[in-house]
Amino acid sequence: MLWDPQYELIALLMMFLFMVFYHLQRSLPLLKNRFFGYLIRVDLLCIITDLIASYISTRYETYPVWLMMISNMLYFQCMIALFFFFYLYCRVTARERAQAAYSEGNIFKIPFYAADAVLLINIFTGIFFTVSKENGYQRGAYYYYLSYAYVFIYILAGLGFVIAHRREIPLKEKWSIYLSTIIVLVCAFWQITFTPYILLVNISMSTSIAIMFLSMQNPEYDKDQMTRTYNRFGFERYVGERIRMKQPVQQVIIGFANFYNIRSIYGDKKMEKMLNRIGIKLVRNIKDAIPFYMMQGRFVFTMEKDKDPQPLIDWLIDYFSKDLQFGDDHVRFQLRIATLKPDVKCDDVFELEEALFYSIDKAIKNESSAVCSIDEDVFEKIKNNKRLRDIFHEALDNDSLTVYYQPIYDRDSARFISAEALVRIDHPKYGLIFPDQFIPIAEEDGSILRLGLQVFRKVCQFISKTDMEALGLKYIEINLSPIQCMHKGLADELIAIANEYHVDMSRFNFEITETAMTDTKDLNTLMNSLLVAGASFSLDDYGTGFSNLINILSLPFQIVKIDKSIVWSYFDSTEYILPKLTDMFLGDDLEIVAEGAETREMTEQLQEIGCRFIQGYYFSKPVSEDRFLEFIMTQNKT
């Protein structure tokens, strides 16, 4: 028999280049990557043994029968392994993003062991192939049946796993496997059926491996191009896999307390060069841990559970304790470290990631240079935050947020003439949840705009069904967050909702905090639009922000609400700035609301120093709509 090896030679060159390139690129040690590496090596061996076996079998008169037998058995053993690893690779790809742990799937090893057994038995029976000095290599009576069965079992089994988990697999990866499977099936069928002397199977496998490499196995996908460490996506893949496989690892995370200061001084481009130098240093010097760059100057090092993290920590402290030279600049990074031991249980990679960020950010804020440990309490906080996030979004989606009202007392009329609207979540299981718990979530994920409009709509509903004049109420105060104030269409949306309920905009006084005044131009446009419509404005929580008086006085506020922290510090004799603030704002024709009045003595003294409006627990806590109406009708009756 004569075999045409031209396609095998092309496949050999392809696989050799892919193997060299793939292993030089330092792939992330994922199970999927390991199987892909095995697949390349086994395919390379399969091509080499096929070429050797074909060469010897073509010149069977020259070589001994035993060499023919061994060379062909080696080739078929490599082919058995090749399709087995192809199946395993498809299986691992299909399960990579599954939530459940990997199962062994021992039943799918049976064809592999059966094929090995047939290959050994073939020495005595010749059911698969025979070799002799007279006829050389000859296919046995069951060659086609066994070849078809084995190849198609593993290709279809791998394809079946991909189809079963198709919703969890990215489109590019899914279709790469589909295409690869089709190429192998078509070429295997064509060679076995029509051109048995043209070697097509290995070139089809090499082509499939090339497709998978280019579309889903490029090691650069998991690397951070700036630092040359692995990236956050790689961290989630690697640690997520270890969690699913019940193989815990320990983590060391570092951050820099002065990261943002350094970036603001040197600029983004120079900071990128600094991080590049740091990343290269980490990759070259740290051998027992896998480094990941998690953005914003934070690196995570993942280690096996039996490794001691102390040498890594000591090296990091020593490296960052000195000034680092970048060109002509000498920069010292203020290192912060947090560690997570493998005995701390975590079943979700994103929860673990959040715990790492929470801990290092806390270390940075506390300016603690000591190494802090991440314990079960941190994960409990993360779980509580996740539960709170779910509760908040459920309430927002179901329009089940509740508006509470806290009355505001007017000294001149000795009546309650307004109230502040405060949002709450009244949960059947966890009780009353306050805005300081879920407002940060809303601001972080962008749902603050929906929240604000939903609260405004509820207040409009309240005003539309309430006789405000009869109750002595002039307006309701509504908070606008800094993020809401950045939304250019906010004024039009608020006016449209008020018109929908036939409520005049003069019934609203919008409270804006100092932190919203980063862009006074846009804020001024928003305020003037609402002022023209009839609304008024208060500067909320004065004393907690950092805006200067020029900014405040340049905006059309009518009222300044002095934060309760300043009020309390005045009455506990730690600060005496309250009267001066009151005189200053009254001199600029601004009314004053003092927050946090808790006793009769405080209320009387606040009135004496010039605070016309007073808000606090002395009068009432924020209460539900029904209780607020009952309170106002009782207190404002003449």
Describe this protein's structure.
The model has no long low-confidence stretch (mean pLDDT 88). The protein is of the alpha/beta class and 638 residues long. The longest helix has 31 residues, at 65-95. The chain has an 8-stranded mixed beta barrel with strand order 10-11-13-14-15-16-17-18, surrounded by 7 helices.
How would you summarize this macromolecular structure in one to three sentences?
It contains 24 helices and 18 strands. With about 650 residues, it is of the alpha/beta class. It starts with 5 loop residues before the first helix and ends with a helix.
List keywords for this structure.
638 residues, eight-stranded mixed β-barrel, elongated
Number of strands: 18
Structural class by secondary-structure content: alpha/beta
Q: Helicity, in percent?
A: 40-55%
- Number of distinct helices: 24
Unreliable spans: none
* Principal-axis shape: elongated
The largest sheet, given as strand count, sense and whether it forms a barrel, is: 8 strands, mixed, barrel
Q: What is the rounded distance between the termini? A: 115 Å
Q: What is the residue-averaged pLDDT?
A: 88
Q: Mind telling me the C-alpha Rg?
A: 36 Å
Strand portion, in percent? Answer: 15-25%
Give the spatial strand order of the biggest sheet: 10-11-13-14-15-16-17-18
> What kind of assembly state do the chains in view correspond to?
single chain
